[in-house]
Amino acid sequence: MAKTRKNLLESIVSNHFGARASTPDETQYAFLAKNWEHLKSIIASKIPEGVYSVGHILKELRKDYQVGFSEQEFRQIYEQFISPDVSKLEKLAYLSGQVSIPLSSEQVKRAWSNFFASAWKKNSLEELVKSLGNPELSQTQIDTICNDYLSLQAGEAKSQRKGNVLQAEDIFELLKITNMTPRWDTALAQRAYDAQIHLLDNNCCSDRFKLMQSIGASPNPVKVQARYKSLIQEKNRDSDYRAYQDDVGSLASDLALVIKRTSLTFNEETKTLLKEFYTRNLNGRNFPAMKNLEKSTGVRLEKGIISKVYQDFLKSGNIAEITYLAEQSQVPPQINPRAVQEAYTALFMQAKFDSALRVYLFTDVEPKTNPKFVASGLKILLKKKMEKNSSQRDIEYQTLDWLQDNFPEQTSGFVKLKLKNLIKSRDFWQAYELSTHAGNSAPEERYVVFCEKGFWYNAKQLFEAHRESITKSYPEYAELAEHFP
Amino acid sequence: MTKEILESQESKNRYHVNLQYSCDNLNETDENKKRQALQSGQDFVTKALKDAEVPFSIYFCGDFHFSEPILERVTKTAKNGRKYELFNSSEGAFSYSPICGPRNVLEHLVRLGVLTPKKNG
A395 vs B6: CB contact, 8 Å cut-off? Predict the structure, then answer.
């Protein structure tokens, strides 16, 4: 269907005044100017779509072709923008600035009244002031705006605003621009302060508390201590891992801000909690951040705490962490031999024998652990597969040698069972490797391994020394002895 | 009763560190010169080990693609007289990502407890 003349004109106008308008060239300007009287109502309706580009075109048309909207017509166009929609009001401010035609005083009043009913913010307030001048608010209006803000903070009113919530910085800007002092409801300010204190940290709200304190609200010591507590607990990780340096850094800045804002320091309970945080989370990596936390809070990171952390690392056999922390803190590890024995017990029970050996090499303290703990750890180890990497296996074997030296009875029992398992699964290569670390234990199993590997001389010697037990345990291998070369 | 572990010199003497250096483009004379220089502590790592009186051995290796030195092996002779391995790079210069270069090697030796930590050192 052919387009009507009106549709065609609308389409041409949209090319220059729509949302995706392009600047007209000379012939297009001439066309717009020649047909101005036909087009101006269409242009007026398109202006809200392309408000940020029309100002220039309208100026050109007025300058070079002497056509344009009259002051009255502009004010008519402005009406399309006056609503409780802050983005429309911002566009209005921009447009009137561009075309240098101010709003009527009645329109200014209505624009401001719509503005304060909208989701306004500091930036949009500044924009409107540039174009409309300062808002003229009555004392009652400013009291209402400010105390409504407090009601929201206190959780006593629901926001009617769609979009962003009003912030303290917006209120500060309004008071600066209007140069007015609201009649604050101080009791409401205190309730707002108490309701918001659980949110105070370095990321948000600092201005909010500054404002409420300026009104006369004061921090409730119990709630402030609860805030310290929750900030510390948030950064205490659930797992065995220690806090990252960044987490400690942000805790330091959050706590510093609460201290600065409230002028209240830690009480005995929160001091203890922070010291527990140090103990649970300190390591070499986060040490600089922990020192910063100490500086921010005034709660000392004492040498005793560092020593306790050394002992914790010792219990997990983490020697590298001890040396890293010593490097950072310059506090030499003073390790109590009793703590070393506790570390051995903990590590043996978890079958962390290589870590136990590291503890031994680091401390030079011999293990005096109850052998039953070694036996229970070896039971766990029995179920584990041996390392595939040869150098790792070497470490396993040197650990086994160390255990043989210190707990021969338990280690021999383990070696015998392990060899039995390897023979059963016909893994004679690993069985042979293990048997070279078996000392004098498990002669029956070692005999089988020597037979399988063809080490007849060693097999013969073992058979002569343990004929009876070998025949009893491995009768088919015992028969092989007759055929030894 | 407590004792300060990292400060014990007697304990330090029982460590032994093997380091690998490059012998690429070196003839026998140059290699000997380099060995002597290193033995007398002329790079950061050997100097730190010498200062700490920790015994060390120098090994040369060709086709060297990493920063010198490579930490090859660290052992400690325990009080019971046995020698234990604290670190073994297994393939040394032929591994994909050995511990190499003075900074990394020194850092690792501190982590292993071989060298006493020195702040900013």
Answer: no
